[in-house]
UniProtKB/TrEMBL annotation:
Occurrences of domain Outer membrane protein beta-barrel (ranges): 287-728
Domain of life: Bacteria
Stretches of the chain forming a coiled coil according to its record: none
Keywords, comma-separated and alphabetical: Cell outer membrane, Membrane, Receptor, Signal
Predominant cellular place of this UniProt entry's protein: membrane
Keyword Electron transport: no
Signal peptide location: 1-18
Protein's name in the database: Outer membrane receptor proteins, mostly Fe transport
Compartments, as annotated in UniProt: Cell outer membrane
Organism: Epilithonimonas mollis
Gene Ontology cellular component list: cell outer membrane
């Protein structure tokens, strides 16, 4: 009997044990299922996170194309990005701001394989710890990581056919061995840009028209080296170096000009330019506890050098015109020295406190020289030759506190203080110079409320300063024709910007954003029409006289695009978007619609850079801005998986930007349809793309004033493009890259 009871107990114990085992197995399966349904696009405290490693769009392309598929981001010119169609972008890689000029960033992104990226973080309103300006948003690209030793790499070759054929190639190599981590990349390529221009300006009694093309051949070489060493479990030391060299020799702008419908002359501008950019950063980091608190410090050096020489010639096509020419050299050297110290203290209740300070010293040297042809030789034009030296010191400090009040509610508050001391002088010209010292206290705050698993809402505000770019301060000119040109302005002042946003997200797929931005003392590039009356002089500078003994004068009408402060602008925006996969990830969509009500108000009545030789005069037509407009932007990105093996993909992307009003005038409708097909074969990925299928991405800006004056700029850039891209991945694809490092040069790169 006891034996039977024992057998029964064992039997029923086995059943119970089996049930428990089955229950645990089900729980395990449930957990595994949760892992498999990883959220690709999520809202976190102060940022949106796009986990591209879990998305099918991330293989076989480059970082630039991947960013074009990222929610909230858009690019209409194939060179720059905007967040929600409005905010300018500052790029960080692994928490460190890129130490390159805008063109170098574009080349770097187009030559960085998408497979190397783990996630993309979009920060629409950066906190006090970020060194950004105005309404700039932050894109932080986080590279893949692993703790395994080994190496990996990527080879990439691309051929692009637009008006010209443009080949490029690159290699990225990564190595990790115990405490050492090393990664580097090198890319090279050549491309020739072609643009077709139509320029007009005038009023009811006069009309200037210019038609022509620009061909700009370029050769690019770029790369980076990053080394990270773990001294011990608490301390790390890192070094990074980035470089870019661009050579553009033989650029030609060829324009045919008409006055009141009558053929006037032909102008040809030939240009040779070289750009060099070298950046160095040394970082030290120490962990102060097991919760993640740490102290980090950086010292950085940036050297930027652009040499540009040009020859502008005007060939007469009517008897009344004569041959004219000028030589121009516009070099620019920028030296920046920077340092920062940051400390973040984390607490067990998931709160954190951060404090930091930074110092930036920038010295720019721009020795512009212009020589004009006087009929027999070139002589120096003292009015347009300027040796401009600009020095700027920015001392910054910030403090932030972040608190998680509950599982649903969290917030972050902070402030940043910046003291700016700057001087600008033109050597030998005491009337062109300034000294500016100003301080700014820039508060920041954000509140985040997770209503439940499917709904999240947040509010953010910040204030920032926008300083002019260094090149914009150099009082030099960039010519389209002798009477149509861009005029830089050393007297531009910084503007103050205030930003607010409310974000709502549903099921980590649908989002809505309401924003308000206000810019005080805003600046831009605005058209000024006028007339210039000059006394004709001989080769020795003596006035030429008519039969009555009076100086012979010639009056010329001009259009001058001057960079200057004009007033203020306000922007109230609404963005609706969706990022979602359908039918088991067969169809991946990224759709967005931006609506913006904007007002621009101000005026420009003078050119502070204008210098007249005694006897010469200049008259300007005031430019008034009083714009109230509703601007819209629509974007749809589709990725279709064509095979069960996940080796064929089709991309169909389209964006539309209807006509919109801006400070400078009305930008007419632009749109682009882009198609691509991707084939994955082991470690090889083949990508075929056609961009701007119907050639509708054209820049066309038209300006009309109440006094009857007008001007237009139409630029056709041949953006229809066929690309063939081949990528090969080799080595251990789970390799860890260098740790996240924040650079001390954070406030400087976007202004070079």
């Amino acid at each position: 009997m006891k034996a039977k009871i024992l057998i029964a107990v064992i039997f029923f114990s086995g059943i119970i044990s089996a049930q428990q085992t089955q229950k645990k197995s089900d729980e395990t399966k449930t957990i595994e299922e949760v892992k498999l349904s990883k959220k690709v696009f999520v809202k976190k405290s102060d940022r949106f996170v796009y986990d591209v490693a879990s998305s099918p769009v991330a293989k076989g392309t480059n970082s630039f194309s991947l960013l074009q598929q990222t929610p909230m981001l858009s690019s209409t010119d194939g060179k720059t990005f905007k967040i929600m169609g409005k905010s300018n972008v500052v790029f960080y890689i692994n928490g460190r701001k890129t130490l390159m000029d805008a063109e170098a960033i574009t080349e770097m992104l187009k030559n960085t394989p998408s497979e190397n990226i783990q996630r993309i973080e979009v920060i629409t309103v950066p906190g006090s710890e970020f060194q950004v300006e105005a309404n700039e948003g932050v894109i932080n690209i986080v590279m893949k990581k692993s703790k395994t030793n080994g190496y990996n790499g990527t080879l990439k070759m691309n051929n692009s056919q637009s008006y010209y054929n443009n080949p490029s190639s690159g290699i990225a190599f990564n190595l990790r061995q115990n405490k050492w981590s090393f990664n580097s990349n090198f890319n090279m390529g050549s491309y020739t840009e072609r643009e077709k221009y139509t320029l007009t300006n005038g009023n009811s009694t006069f009309r200037n028209e210019s038609f022509g093309t620009m061909d700009d051949p370029n050769k690019n070489y770029g790369g980076s080296i990053n080394i990270d060493y773990e001294i011990n479990k608490k301390q790390s030391l890192g070094f990074s170096y980035n470089m870019r060299y661009n050579k553009s020799f033989g650029s030609v702008l060829d324009m045919t000009n008409y006055e009141n419908g009558i053929l006037s002359n032909k102008t040809v501008n030939q240009e040779d330019a070289q750009t060099r950019n070298h950046n160095f950063n040394l970082n030290y980091e120490v962990k102060t506890d097991t919760l993640g608190s740490k102290l980090s410090s950086n010292i950085s050096y940036l050297w930027f050098n652009r040499d540009k020489v040009s020859l502008g010639e005007s060939f007469p096509l009517t008897p009344k015109n004569a041959y004219n020419a000028f030589q121009q050299a516009v070099p620019q050297i920028i030296n920046n020295y920077a340092a920062n110290i940051d400390y973040i203290k984390k607490f067990r209740n998931e709160s954190s406190f951060a404090i930091g300070t930074s110092y930036n010293h920038t010295n720019t040297d721009s020795d512009t020289r212009q020589n004009d042809f006087n009929g027999s030789q070139f002589i120096n034009n003292t009015k347009l030759s300027n040796h401009f030296i600009y020095k700027e010191n920015i001392i910054g400090a910030y403090v932030t506190f972040e608190r998680k009040f509950s599982d649903k509610f969290s917030g972050k508050i902070g402030t940043r203080f910046e003291a700016t001391l700057s001087t600008g002088d033109v050597v030998g010209k005491s009337d062109i110079g300034f000294e500016r010292n100003y301080n700014n206290l820039l508060p920041y705050g954000t509140l985040n409320f997770a209503i439940n698993d499917n709904n999240n809402i947040s509010y953010s505000f910040s204030s920032r300063v926008r300083r002019p770019g260094f090149g914009q301060l150099n009082p030099s000119r960039t010519y389209f024709t002798p009477t149509n040109y861009i005029q830089n302005n050393p007297f531009m002042q910084a503007s103050k910007n205030y930003n607010q946003e409310i974000n709502y997200m549903y099921k980590n797929a649908f989002y809505a954003n309401v924003s308000f931005n206000y810019a005080d003392n805003a600046y831009g590039q605005l058209p000024l029409q006028g007339t210039e009356t000059k006394i004709q002089r001989d080769k020795d500078g003596n006035p030429l006289l008519d039969v009555d003994g009076n100086p012979i004068k010639v009056t010329t009408k001009f259009l001058r695009y001057i960079r200057t402060n004009y007033g203020n602008n306000k922007q109230l925006g609404l963005t609706l978007g969706m990022n979602k996969s359908w039918f088991g990830d067969i169809w991946t969509t990224n759709y967005s619609a931006n609506f913006e009500y904007a007002t621009y108000k101000g005026s420009v009545t003078k050119d502070p850079t204008s210098q007249q030789i005694p006897g010469d005069t200049e008259e300007l037509l005031p430019f008034s801005i009083d714009v109230k407009t509703l601007n819209t932007f629509f974007q749809v990105n589709n990725m279709l998986r064509l095979s069960a093996k996940k080796d064929w993909y089709l991309g169909v992307n389209y964006w539309l930007m209807p006509s919109r009003e801006m400070e400078i005038g009305k930008l007419h409708t632009q749109q682009s349809l882009d198609l691509n097909i991707k084939k994955i074969m082991g470690n090889f990925t083949f990508l075929f793309e056609v961009n701007d299928v119907f050639s509708q991405n054209i820049d066309d800006i038209r300006t009309f004033q109440n006094d009857g004056s007008f001007n237009t700029v139409r630029s056709f850039q041949y953006r229809r493009e066929f690309n063939i891209n081949v990528t090969y991945n080799f080595g251990n694809q789970k390799l860890k890259k260098a740790r996240e490092v924040k650079s001390a040069n954070d406030a400087i790169r976007s202004r070079t």
